[in-house]
Specification:
This protein has one domain: 3-Layer(aba) Sandwich (L-fuculose-1-phosphate Aldolase). 38% of the residues lie in helices and 17% in strands. It has 10 helices and 9 strands. Strand 4 and strand 5 form a beta hairpin. The longest helix has 23 residues. The structure holds Dihydroxyacetone and zinc ion. The site of zinc ion has 6 residues, from loops.
């Protein structure tokens, strides 16, 4: 298996290395998943099941029989490029979308990310909402976005979205649907998975207060790019604050003009 490294493994290695380089993936922080098409797995052998079926908290019927490349629990993203067979693995879901098992990787006896439920529930939602276009989910620990959740009290999705749109003119084009603010919840739980997947019905980005961010896209590059854009807007806010404070910002009229120019429709509850 994988005498050559197929493209899906190379993009996972590249993206996880970029996350480390950016300072988003300390120790075992962060996790990634990529839904694969049968074509991408054609010709691969040596993928006998490595464990019994493991139940999900609830079935995800639209992921029936789907395969995913997923980072491993406890593994360091910066090591994926070096030892992909240890630090990532391929899992499949059964015909009901109710159970998963490992078909390759996580060597010798590892498991998928502790946030597997959040990834799979999000995949189920975005497969539907994107008409099967979106295939990638990234969770990572972006320092400036996390710091914003400490710096500002009483945040909500509208306030956070508006701030990021105002601090970086690309943002309203990159995520016109806004970014969901999710108050602190325990990592790795069904509760955080449910809340994240629900947020992705409307948006492509969600902030986990005091913890990190989740982004989705058609591939890992797209999900990474979206997170990078939001993180840069947060960084610009901190730069302006450290230079004496935010004295001026993009106005609603300017934001609406950008949206019109790039033919995107901002969330009307945030800007109309
Ligand atoms: O993979 O980032 O949220 C470790 C985490 C959990
Ligand atoms: Zn995390």
């Amino acid at each position: 298996m994988f005498n050559h490294h197929p493209p899906f493994l190379r993009t996972m290695a590249k993206t996880s290395h970029d996350m480390w380089t950016k300072g988003w993936a300390e120790a075992n922080g962060g996790n990634l998943s990529l839904r694969l098409s049968p074509d991408e797995l054609k010709g691969e052998s040596g993928m006998e099941p490595k464990n019994d079926w493991q139940p999900l908290s609830a079935p995800l019927p639209n992921l029936s029989g789907a395969w995913f490349l997923v980072s491993g629990t406890g593994r360091h993203l910066r090591n994926i490029a070096l030892f992909p067979e240890k630090n990532t693995g391929l899992i499949e879901l059964d015909a009901a979308g109710a159970n998963w098992r490992t078909r390759w990787g996580f060597e010798p006896t590892g498991r998928p990310t502790s946030e597997l439920e959040a990834h799979l529930q999000t995949h189920a939602v975005i497969r539907e909402t994107s008409q099967d276009v979106d295939h990638a989910v990234i969770h990572t620990h972006t320092p400036h976005l996390i710091a914003l959740t400490y710096a500002l009290a009483n945040l909500d999705s509208a306030k956070l979205t508006k701030l990021l749109w105002q601090m970086h003119a690309e943002c309203i084009v990159g995520f016109p649907q806004g970014i969901e603010f999710l108050p602190w919840m325990m990592a790795g739980t069904t509760a955080i998975a449910d809340a994240t997947a629900a947020a992705m019905r409307r948006r492509k980005l969600a902030i986990w207060q005091f913890h990190g961010v989740v982004g989705v896209g058609r591939n890992l590059d797209a999900a990474f790019g979206l997170i990078d854009m939001a993180e840069k807007a947060a960084q610009i806010w901190f730069l302006a604050m450290s230079a004496g404070g935010v004295q001026t910002r993009l106005t609603d009229a300017q934001l609406l003009a950008i949206a019109r120019n790039f033919k995107v429709t901002p969330d009307p509850l945030i800007l109309a």
